[in-house]
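# nightly structure sweep
# worker-07 picked up a monomer target from the shared queue
# config: single-sequence mode, recycle default, output format = structure tokens
# input follows
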Amino acid sequence: MDSILILMLLGLGIGTIGTLIGAGGGFILVPVLIILYPDMGPETITAISLAIVALNAFVGSVAYLRKGRVDFKAGVIFAAATIPGSIIGVYVNKFIPREKFDIIFGIVLIALAIFLFFSGGKKKGTILSKIKPSNTYQKKMDKSGVVYEYAYNLKRGVLIAVFIGFFSPLLGIGGGVIHVPAMTEILSFPVHIATATSQFILAIMAAVSVVVHYFEGSYDNPQTIKLMWGLGVGIIPGAMIGARISSLVKGKVIIRVLSISLVIIGIKILTSAIF
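# output follows
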């Protein structure tokens, strides 16, 4: 698995899928690293994953910004809310007992996946007369001429971002697989706006975690650097491909793919905790 070509191909796949569903790709990379490198410590695995997620999210968010699909205001506020938690989460990762937490969290993810698969992705029409005064109203038109109209509770969104900012470094998956369904099902964001904005948030949140890992010495190993370079070279074109084909994929399909991804993560977490 030390072949640069194989690492590049893996990065290409992670970049494409991660950007398409706004999840960053850590949910694929972490299980792969666990299987292929059984002697690698969890801190190193999460550090590598977060670095790749940060690169993937940065490239993907630039592509989505060009398409006009990023809710910049919500993205900046939610990203800022994740920063304190993401810093604390990196340090807590060293001390917190993971077994019981992983079992509970894995069950929650699988339950969320089942809900999203059968009920998620449905259009939630915005009725202007029923928008609460406390909600933030947005009307956006992307570069292809598609108009998105929605309203969300900003305070609720900030609380969700704080939660995700703390728990993402513990799992090393970036948090997009939680943030996207939270934005679509709880905050009523359109799917394509949620995936694009999630990438923007991930770019900032993961970058903060990477900086903390750097000063903690998580990237001092030459093997770690080689893995990151190989994966990173594939991530860049993959993220561009994912952003491009997102215009061709219906929102409900993206949610279905996301729900399947959540099942994979949930099963991985449960099996790791039990065995």
